[in-house]
Amino acid sequence: MKALRSLLLCGLIAAGLVFPARSASLVADLSNHLVAITSGFVGVDVLLFGTVDEPGDIVVVVRGPERAQPVLRKSNVAGLWINTARMTFESAPAFYFIASNRPLEEIAEPSVLSANQFGVAHLQLGLPPGRAGGRAAQEWREALIRNKQRQGLYVREPAGISILGQRLFRTSVHLPSNVPPGLYRAETYVLQDGQVVAAQTTPLSISKLGMEADLFSFAHEQPAAYGAIAVLAALMAGWLAHLLFRRN
Amino acid sequence: MQIYLPIAEVSVNVFLLLGLGGIIGFLSGVFGVGGGFLMTPLLIFIGIPPPVAVATQANNVIASSVSGCFSQWSRGNVDFKMGLILLVGGFAGSTIGVALFSLLQSLGQIDLVINLSYVVLLGTVGTLMLIEGARALLMRRRKVTAGKLHTHNWLHGLPLKTRFRQSRLYISALLPFTIGFGVGVLSAIMGVGGAFVLVPLMIYLLGMPTAIVVGTSLFQIIFVSINVTFLHAIQNQTVDVVLALLLTVGGVIGAQYGSRAGAKLPGEALRLLLGILILAVAVRLSLELIVPPEDIYSLGTPS
Question: What order of strands is seen across the sheet that includes strand A26-30?
Answer without folding.
Answer: A26-30, A44-52, A168-175, A162-164
